Amino acid sequence: MGFKSGFVNIVGNPNVGKSTLMNYFVGERISIATFKSQTTRHRIMGILNEEDYQIVFSDTPGVLKPHYKLQESMRAFSNEALIDVDVLVYVTDVVETSEKNLDFIDNVNNLAGVPKIVVINKIDLTNEKELNKLVEEWKALIPEAEIFPVSAKAKFNVDNVLRRIKELLPENPPYFEKDQLTDRPVRFFVSEIIREKILLYYDKEIPYCTEVVVNSYKEDERIVRIEATIYVEHESQKGIIIGHQGVALKKISTEARKSIEIFLAQKVFLRIFVRVNKGWRNSEKQLSSFGYNPLRD
Residue ranges of the alpha helices (H) in 63-127? Predict the structure, then answer.
């Protein structure tokens, strides 16, 4: 048998474990994986290279009903994942209702000739009777799909999913160089790490009103010097991000710097600014400047 390679797109609703699953497959922290929904905003590619195959995974934003232009862009990334795909992995869990976003499931069913896998995640949170019921529901919803109950967090049955993906790959030459891990630049992951800390340390709407841009990235033999800006929509949000006497921003900067140093395996000096960009989530111009353009991917 010859070399196998293909595009495996991971889709599903928010907060079901798509990013955790892809990070496990690729072996690196490519996608942010937190307990908060709507965490992934872009389509993020992770490449798994082995001697006889190359799998190009794509993690996508959770499927949702858009309420503003940023969410419209996120939904477009999810819809685009149904194009040019060799294996589709639809991730759900034991918590959400199977009827959620049925219009997207219809689109999945309309994919002719594409192998489909439904991953039911978080099975450690249910019992065998309820799980069997869910399996039957998903068999009815996506009849062509193979069903895999897993616990991505506990790494239970995940290897069997990966094994099946390998079997379903078509014979192709590799699409990327063997040492390439992703199609995204380092700056992108730096901004994602900072955004992850915002998601972890701030409540309510604050994380969803912020965007992170890396303004400068300078590397020498001893240290990487990074300057980044956190954009918010209102002055009140800026005050919350900074905190009393700058304590909150200092905590974010410290925690982000530590994670970036692990990611880069190099010492980092990180400086973060906070600026107001009113209404950026509903501005096509601002969204485009922040990279929310599905055609890019």
Answer: 69-80, 102-109
